[in-house]
């Protein structure tokens, strides 16, 4: 399972309607300047959950304090392994 690819593809989907087109990178800083405000982060989580058929509830607090997409990749992998997939 390629978690980085899933996160990047989900990020692209969330930002489809964003006025500024940004090239997604695992080192991209999260925040309003990256197009991922608090609502965008929720949408990203939903997109990832649906893609992988998992819940990210167990890592929710850590995701909210993530600084980069690479942090989210690590947390998605942690949540995925926790459900024994």
Tell me about this structure.
The protein is built from 4 helices and no strands. With 85 residues, the chain is mainly α.
Care to count the β-strands? 0
Count of DSSP helices? 4
Q: What is the alpha-carbon Rg in Å?
A: 12 Å
Strand count, sense and barrel status of the largest sheet are: none
Strand content: under 5%
Helix content: 40-55%
Mean pLDDT: 88
Distance between the termini: 10 Å
Gist?
Helices cover 54% and strands 0% of the residues.
Key structural traits:
single chain, mainly alpha, globular, 85 residues
List the helices and strands and how they pair.
Blueprint: H1 3-14, H2 38-52, H3 60-64, H4 69-82
Helix pairs in contact: 1-2, 1-4
């Amino acid at each position: 399972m390629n978690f980085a690819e899933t996160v990047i593809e989900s990020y692209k989907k969330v930002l489809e309607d964003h006025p500024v087109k940004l090239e997604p990178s695992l080192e991209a800083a999260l925040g309003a300047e990256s197009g991922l405000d608090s609502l965008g982060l929720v949408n990203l989580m939903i997109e990832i959950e649906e893609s992988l058929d998992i819940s990210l509830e167990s890592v929710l607090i850590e995701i909210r304090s993530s600084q980069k997409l690479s942090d989210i990749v690590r947390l998605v992998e942690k949540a995925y392994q926790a459900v024994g997939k």
